[in-house]
Design brief:
CATH class: Alpha Beta
Number of domains: 1
Strand order of the largest sheet: 2-3-1-4-5-6-7
Order of helices and strands: EHEEEHEEHHHHE
Number of strands: 7
Low-confidence stretches: none
Distance between the termini: 25 Å
Strand content: 25-35%
Oligomer: single chain
Helix content: 25-40%
Amino acid sequence: MTEEIIIAGFGGQGVLSMGKILAYSGIMQELEVSSFPSYGPEMRRGTANVTVILSDSRISSPILSTFDTAIILNQQSMDKFEKTVKPGGLLLYDPNGITRHPERKDISIYKIEANKLASEMGNTKIFNMIVLGSYLKIKPVVEFNNVIKGLKKSLPERHHNLVPMNEAAIRKGMDEILKM
């Protein structure tokens, strides 16, 4: 099993955190892992993406031009990465701020209204965990208990009180995913 993922959106949406949590989750599951973040100099609202590779065999390179999965969180990323999903692959997106929805017919397309759900749950900072949960429902590439371990590993210990809220957000994403 090898899963090659691109997660892309604006800085501040938790793109890099999602990648970090997936990477730690893969490590907890004793998978081979590569995580390759890319971001502009802006702290917020600049573009950011992270490539994560999870595999049960050796990873030859962290540099990819096509992906099994694209998780898209803004229009610029949709424009750039929709075409990089391999035929038969997966595109998952939050429609908030998307003006041109995905059009490909040779991939599976899913939508999660994570922005709306995070607002309903009372904390917009859990947006990325809702997205992560929806992805893991579609493709359970790592076990849930390892995701929670990865979350704890990626959060400073002083923020471990936030783990239950993040776990609830992951579960919410698993419950609310929509196939297009």
